[in-house]
Amino acid sequence: MSSDPACRPGRSLRLRSLLIGIGALISSLVLLLAAWVVRIEWTHLADSEAGLTRARRLQDVLRVAEMASRERGPANGVMGEDLPTPAGSLERLAQARERTDAAFDALHAQLPPGEDASRHLGDTRERLKAARAQVDRIAAKPAPQRRAGELRQAVSDMFEVIDDLAPVATRFTDEARQAAPELAGPLTAARRAADLRELAGRLGSLFTSALARRQVLGLDERLAIEHLRGRIEELRQQLQRSTSTLPATPQVAQAMALMQQRYFGDTQAFIAEQLRIGMSDGRFELDTSGFAARYVPDMDSFLLLRDALLEQALTQARAERDRAALRLSWAAAGAGLTLLLLVSVVVIVNRRVVQPLTDSTAIVSALAAGRLDQPVPQHGARDEVGDLLRALELLRQDSLERQALERERQNLIELLRDQSNTDFLTGLLNRRGFMALGGAQLPALHRRGAEIAVAVFDLDHFKLINDRHGHICGDAVLDAIGEACRQWCRRGDLVSRYGGEEFVILMPDCTVQGAWQQAERLRNGVASLRIEAPGHPAPIEVTISVGVATCRPGETDLARIISRADTALYAAKREGRNRVRVYQEPAPGERSPA
Ligand SMILES: Nc1nc2c(ncn2[C@@H]2O[C@H](COP(=O)(O)OP(=O)(O)OP(=O)(O)O)[C@@H](O)[C@H]2O)c(=O)[nH]1
């Protein structure tokens, strides 16, 4: 039964391997799926971060452009005022330049060094420096010496600084759009608002030359002003269209309304009036500073709108980043929990099912092999596996009882067998046991060429002992003779109480000479005994007569050998007892003594 493969413990090990394999496979699939989801969410998060970073950079670029644009007011101011330039104008210009430089520094700090945008901004600053030097050269001249051409050039150089920032702004807008497409709307609209501020500023700057010299506007200035007004209107419409598609925020709505009211309401009428004067007699009521004081504040409505749109974009980007981070956390936590659950399931199934099955298989195999010493493990749960283990324990207990009963039965059989072959008085073999064992030994002894002898001895006048001292004393004497046999016979000799007071000894590996010596030793030993018998004060002395015969080659009939030894025994009795006689084989033609 133990050879049945189903009983081998290996089965259960394979079941555990299967469980671990399935667990590992499902875990791998879950991990793969989780890695895929986490990767997607990670990409979303990275894109959102990138979109936010680019939106902030765009905000900084637009701030640089705003500051450079604001710097044009004080620059135009000092170029429009005669020497000595008022300290207040110089102070305003210095402060404006400081603010522009600070905005440049802040933007530079955001960019990794060596990046294209960083290098480009470096070039733009050089261009700004050159434009400022040109402004300072013109402002250092007396007003009459300042030519219209150089004034326009100086203004144009300042414009170019702003134009130079446009590619950087476009680049960050594109990068933000690629990383987070939802930012495209508000960022594009914010750039349009910034462009409107710039164009409005340029429009004002075109009046600078005529205002400074209180002259009519030149044809190219008039054309440029009309061109800019057209561009401004066009941009306004684009801005309206783009903001109308965005999710409306109160800040953007308010900034749009303010822009419409202030710049495209009051300020447009003011510009139209200045244009009319510039096209008629050039007698402006305001100088450049007065013009700037009236015109510039209304342009701030563009900046309010730009900032509101940028804030909307940044808020969107931050919200998207936070959502992506949350989704990423959920995905990672979900994957971790699923894995934990899987591992728990594998551990529980292993502990509740596979391990008990493994133990059960080992126990069943042990039971099948008859090994009952292996205890069945305790399993507290009231489930099928628990029932199985409890049933196995019952089976084991039952088998243990059966085994004990079987052992008892075997012992009893052994005992009975021994008793049936043993003489109850001396503990030696009885006749039956002697004949069975001795008869079985002879063939093997012959096969290895051993010499075999048999001795038969009988107590002398034993009847007298019984008669004089009683049967119990006779039994004690027989018992003492048995002890003497154990003491004086060799280890391999087979000794038996053959019947009554007659004993037979089978002596393997014994020549006739050896047998005679052995018999003599035994006879002397018995004669020297002083046997204590119950109820008998004096020790009893006995003698024995012994007959010895040897086994003929190949002879296996034990009874015949005993018969020959018996013949020798009778001879010993006849000759006076207490002696050993060896059976003499009759000469050819002579009759057997028996
Ligand atoms: N106490 C006792 N006596 C036994 C037992 N078996 C046989 N005897 C006695 O042994 C005696 C044998 O006597 P006999 O055959 O005449 O032989 P003997 O008296 O020994 O004389 P020889 O053999 O000629 O020397 C008988 O009295 C039997 O009763 C036994 O188990 N116990």
UniProtKB/TrEMBL annotation:
<feature type="transmembrane region" description="Helical">
    <location>
        <begin position="18"/>
        <end position="38"/>
    </location>
</feature>
<keyword id="KW-1133">Transmembrane helix</keyword>
<feature type="transmembrane region" description="Helical">
    <location>
        <begin position="328"/>
        <end position="349"/>
    </location>
</feature>
<keyword id="KW-0175">Coiled coil</keyword>
<keyword id="KW-0472">Membrane</keyword>
<dbReference type="Pfam" id="PF00990">
    <property type="entry name" value="GGDEF"/>
</dbReference>
<feature type="domain" description="GGDEF">
    <location>
        <begin position="450"/>
        <end position="585"/>
    </location>
</feature>
<dbReference type="GO" id="GO:0043709">
    <property type="term" value="P:cell adhesion involved in single-species biofilm formation"/>
</dbReference>
<dbReference type="InterPro" id="IPR000160">
    <property type="entry name" value="GGDEF_dom"/>
</dbReference>
<dbReference type="InterPro" id="IPR003660">
    <property type="entry name" value="HAMP_dom"/>
</dbReference>
<protein>
    <recommendedName>
        <fullName>diguanylate cyclase</fullName>
        <ecNumber>2.7.7.65</ecNumber>
    </recommendedName>
</protein>
<feature type="coiled-coil region">
    <location>
        <begin position="395"/>
        <end position="422"/>
    </location>
</feature>
<dbReference type="Pfam" id="PF00672">
    <property type="entry name" value="HAMP"/>
</dbReference>
<dbReference type="GO" id="GO:1902201">
    <property type="term" value="P:negative regulation of bacterial-type flagellum-dependent cell motility"/>
</dbReference>
<feature type="domain" description="HAMP">
    <location>
        <begin position="351"/>
        <end position="404"/>
    </location>
</feature>
<dbReference type="InterPro" id="IPR050469">
    <property type="entry name" value="Diguanylate_Cyclase"/>
</dbReference>
<dbReference type="GO" id="GO:0005886">
    <property type="term" value="C:plasma membrane"/>
</dbReference>
<dbReference type="InterPro" id="IPR029787">
    <property type="entry name" value="Nucleotide_cyclase"/>
</dbReference>
<dbReference type="GO" id="GO:0007165">
    <property type="term" value="P:signal transduction"/>
</dbReference>
<dbReference type="InterPro" id="IPR043128">
    <property type="entry name" value="Rev_trsase/Diguanyl_cyclase"/>
</dbReference>
<keyword id="KW-0812">Transmembrane</keyword>
<dbReference type="GO" id="GO:0052621">
    <property type="term" value="F:diguanylate cyclase activity"/>
</dbReference>
